[in-house]
Amino acid sequence: MLKNIAPLLSPDLLATLCAMGHGDDIVVADANFPAEAVARHTTLGRVLRLDGADVPQAVQAILSVFPLDSFVDHPVSRMQVVGQADALPPIQQEVQDLVDQAEGKHLALGGIERMAFYEAAKKSYAVVATGERRFYGCFIFKKGVIAPEA
After folding, report:
1. Who's near 29: CB < 8 A, 6+ residues apart?
2. Is residue 69 annotated as part of the catalytic site, yes or no?
3. pLDDT value, residue 14
4. Are 122 and 41 spatial neighbours (Cβ–Cβ below 8 Å)?
5. Structure confidence at residue 2 (pLDDT)
6. What's the pTM?
7. Does 86 qualify as catalytic in the annotation?
8. Which of these is catalytic: 24, 30, 54, 69?
9. 146 touches 18 (CB < 8 A)
10. DSSP class of residue 37?
11. CB-based burial of residue 120 (10 Å sphere; 0-12 exposed, 13-18 middle, 19+ buried)?
C-alpha cells in the first residue's frame, strides 16, 4: 500500500500510467467493450482489468495521478451514442463531472463515432476494462505533462 494512492490503482496500472508519455492515450471501458480484442493492438498488448470497479471509480482513481493533455482541444473523448451523437447519457455526464473536478474547470468531452472509437482505441497505449454495465461507458484519455516547479 502507498499513501495518497487510490487503492484501485494496481501496480500494473500504476506502472502503465507512469510509463506512458505525453500524447499517449489510455482507454477506460465498460464491461461490454471488446477490451481483450482491442488491447491486443495497443502498445501494452494486453488488457488491464478493474472488474470490481465501475467507470466513474476507475476514472476518479486514474485522474488522481494522471495529467490530461492541455495541448489538444479534447484530451478526453467519449464513445458517441449510436444515432444520437450529441446525447450525453448519465455515465458520460458523471465522467464529465469528474474531469471538471480533476482539472478545476470545465473541459468538454470530445465525441467519437462508435466504430471510429474502436479504431482509435486500438492505437492507444493501453485499455482498462471495468465492470461497468451501463452502456456507452467508454472513454479515451490523452496524457499531458507535469510542468516543472516555478
Report:
1. 35, 55, 121, 127, 128, 129, 130, 132, 137, 138, 139
2. yes
3. 97
4. yes
5. 81
6. 0.97
7. no
8. 69
9. no
10. H
11. middle
> What pLDDT is stored for residue 40 in this prediction?
98
- Tell me, what amino acid is at 68? L
Burial class (CB in 10 A: 0-12, 13-18, 19+), 86: exposed
Domain spans, the chain: 23-142
- In whole angstroms, give the CA distance from residue 61 to residue 108: 20
Instruction: Supply the DSSP string of 65-118, one letter for each residue.
Output: T-PBPSSSS-SEEEEPBTTBTT---HHHHHHHHHHHHHHTS--PPEEE-HHHHH
Q: Which listed residue (24, 25, 30, 118) is catalytic?
A: 118
Distance CA 29, CA 91 (A): 11
Burial of 128 (0-12, 13-18, 19+ CB in 10 A): buried
Low-confidence ranges of the chain (pLDDT < 70): 150
CB 26 within 8 A of CB 68: no
Domain 23-142 classified CATH 3.10.580.10? no
Question: Catalytic: 41?
Answer: no
